[in-house]
Each structure stands twice: as C-alpha cells, then as structure tokens.
Design a protein that fits this description.
With about 140 residues, the chain is of the alpha+beta class. The protein has 2 helices and 9 strands.
Length: about 140
C-alpha cells in the first residue's frame, strides 16, 4: 500500500448492534471520515471552490471486506492510502486495524465534480488538488 494517513477511533455504543459488535455500515462511515480528515491534512476540503465553481467528490464505488469484528469501546486505527489518482477520480483504501490485526478493508472511488443547481458534472481534478493527492501516493 502507498503512504498512509492514520487516524484512530473508538467504537461508540450507538455504532454497535444488539450483540455489542460494530455494525458493518459504520466501517464505511469511518472510511468517509478518514477521507475527509485526509483532505483536511492536505489543506483541502471535500467541498471547496475552484475557479468560482463549487467542487465536491461524490462516491461512485465503495466496498468493504471483513476478516474480523470490533466491539463497543475497541479503538481502531484507520490507515488510509490513495491507491489511484485518475483524470477525474481518486481511489482510496482504508485498513481497519484492531490490536495490530486488520479486521476490515474498505475501498472507495470518488469523482471530482462541479455542483450545479440540478446535478453534478464531472470535471478534471484541479491541478493544485492533483499535485497534493499525487504527492500522497
């Protein structure tokens, strides 16, 4: 995997099912949180202005594979890496690590878009943003 951005999170009670196990959907939420924190670490935002246009990054693909579980109050490390920077898209991989063991691997792809009143329109990643993303691969 490429250079990683790392953050930690503790499983909250409301993120678990009745057995006290972290609900699978929260791994995807945490992956998104890690992506947003990564963008901020680069001085960027998941929503910004570029050339007078409102830019955002809607997801076009997301998946997660599980090899373990996390429970209430477990602290996980999310290791996020940029795995591909395309002309208009960026793909991430997030490894969820509990006590040194990977319990899940999430992947997502987002497309750089200008936000219009009635739709999103994909655009090439602005040069300044591309430079920062590529420096992280």
């Amino acid at each position: 995997m490429n250079r990683t951005f790392t953050m930690t999170r503790r499983v909250a009670f409301n993120e678990t099912d009745m057995a006290g196990v972290m609900h699978f959907s929260n791994f995807l939420r945490w992956l998104e949180d890690a992506e947003h924190a990564f963008f901020r670490s680069l001085g960027l935002s998941i929503e910004s202005e570029s050339d007078g246009r409102r830019i955002s990054w809607p997801r076009v693909s997301v998946n997660c594979d599980f090899s373990g579980s996390a429970r209430f109050q477990d602290e996980l490390e999310i290791r996020l890496a940029v795995v591909r920077v395309g002309r208009k898209s960026v793909s991430f991989q997030g490894d969820f690590v509990l006590n040194g063991r990977t319990v899940a691997v999430g992947r997502s792809t987002s497309v750089c878009c200008v936000v219009l009143p009635d739709r999103f329109e994909s655009i090439e990643i602005p040069a300044e943003v591309r430079r920062k993303l590529e420096a992280s691969t």
